[in-house]
Structures are given as structure tokens and as C-alpha cells.
Amino acid sequence: MSRPKCLQAYVSDELAIRARAAASANGLALSEWLRTVIVRACDSDLSVASDRSVMLRLYRQSLFAMVGVDALLAGHSDHALRERVHTAFAARCRAAGVAETTDEGGSHEA
Predict the structure, then answer these.
(1) What is the DSSP-derived secondary structure letter of residue 6?
(2) How far apart are CA 110 and CA 96, in angstroms?
(3) What backbone phi and psi angles, to 5 degrees, belong to 90?
(4) Taking the CA atoms of the chain, what radius of gyration do you get in angstroms?
(5) pTM
(6) CA 68 → CA 40, 49, 74, 87, 101, distances in Å?
(7) Residue 103: is its pLDDT beyond 60?
């Protein structure tokens, strides 16, 4: 059996605290928990770069759909429809416990 190799990484205090807490919550020593995380990451088909790429593509598609729907609402013959949709969106966000921000839709600006 070969001797284990040491890998070293520098992380912020916050990340170190979070990693220790996660390891403890799983009943593992930090080194065992990190080995498990590394093995899962290496065995996964998705890399961090592809995860970011997928998220960026989904964001762009969502943004396009949001702008398109808002444009259709703004041009609709029922001029109050757009405001009702924004009001319903805000209510759904509150019900779901999700922050309603102008960055995520629901903007009342034209």
C-alpha cells in the first residue's frame, strides 16, 4: 500500500469554519470529509467550470424570457395586465419566501 500524499490548500477563515462544521455534522474528521468531497468532485461529470457555464446559460435564457414577457405585457391591449402580473409575482415571491428584487424580475420600470 502506498503512503498517502498530502495536498494543501489555503482557504479563508470563514470557509475553514464551514468545512469543519460540515465534517462534524457528518461525524467525520476534517481530512476524511475533505477526501470524500474530493472523490465526489473527481467522479462527477460536471466540473466547476461547466457548472458555472450551465448556470450562466440558464441565467441568459431566463433573462431573455423575462424581457420578452415584459415586452409582451407592456404592449398588451389591457394596460393594467402588466401591473397585475408584477403584483402577482411579488405575492408569489413573498409566499415562497423568496426576495422580490428588480434584479430577479418584478421591476415596475418600463
Answers:
(1) P
(2) 26
(3) -60, -40
(4) 23
(5) 0.42
(6) 39, 29, 10, 18, 18
(7) no
